[in-house]
Amino acid sequence: MSELFNIGFLTVSIIDLIDVAIVTVLFYWIYNELKHTIAIQILFGLVILLGLSFITEAFNLKSMNWILTILSEIWLLAFIILFQPELRKLLLMVTRLQVFQIFIKTKISETLDEVIEATISFSEKHIGALMVFPRNQNVQMAIETGITLNANVSKELLTSIFVLKSPLHDGAVIINNQTIIAARCILPLANTEKYKGKNLGTRHRAALGLSEQIDVVVLIVSEETGWISIADRGELTLNIPKEELNEVLRNRLYEQN
């Protein structure tokens, strides 16, 4: 690739500019996601060490460059060990990008099969349930009100959560992709106590309240009637027939993908 210009002893080409642009965007994205955590301080330290290492290599300061290279490797290892939760969060966010959806769609489909099977079982047995599916917005505030699980979705696990005598049966579960992020989460209640002439119980008001505030789909099973309902964008779809649940839920979840 032909050079564009020189900066002192440095030769800059189009590939170099593309490389710098990609790294800049990458570091900005990482910074934006970690800026409210202590991990950002360690990341800044690593960036400084890498910058100093580049300068010492450019000036052929071999001893200093060797020391900085060793420190950078140690710093990077410490960053990975100390901030596993933050890095795991970043990796989860990467897998949610549109380009990766084609690779995980099959697993999501299997997850929804488990959810739908559990939901129909709850409806038949009049087991109350509340399940939240985030679309594109962070539901961290709701997650923090509950018990963190980070477990694979299965009919058996959902049943063990919502069965009446379970200590987790009150509140909602947050399901993201193939994972139950948290259970017994408390959702904000909608102000309205009636919807289209129907009295709303606590579960329906909670589902409606959350869907009014952020972009989520909330699946509800009524303990009293066994009705299956969905809250989405501040609207309730009540008493969905079991044979239509699969199509209705998938359409709601995929319509923005």
Task: For the structure shown, list the relevant keywords.
single chain; 257 residues; alpha+beta; YojJ-like (1; 2 domains; 7-stranded mixed β-sheet; two-stranded antiparallel ribbon
Architecture overview:
Helix content is 54%, strand content 20%. The two termini are 39 Å apart. It contains nine helices and eleven strands. A hairpin with a 2-residue loop joins strand 10 and strand 11. It is α+β, with helices and mostly antiparallel strands and 257 residues long. The chain has a seven-stranded mixed sheet with strand order 4-6-5-3-9-10-11, with helices on both faces. A two-stranded antiparallel ribbon has the order 1-2. It folds into two domains: 89 residues, no CATH class; 151 residues, DNA integrity scanning protein, DisA, N-terminal domain (YojJ-like (1), CATH 3.40.1700.
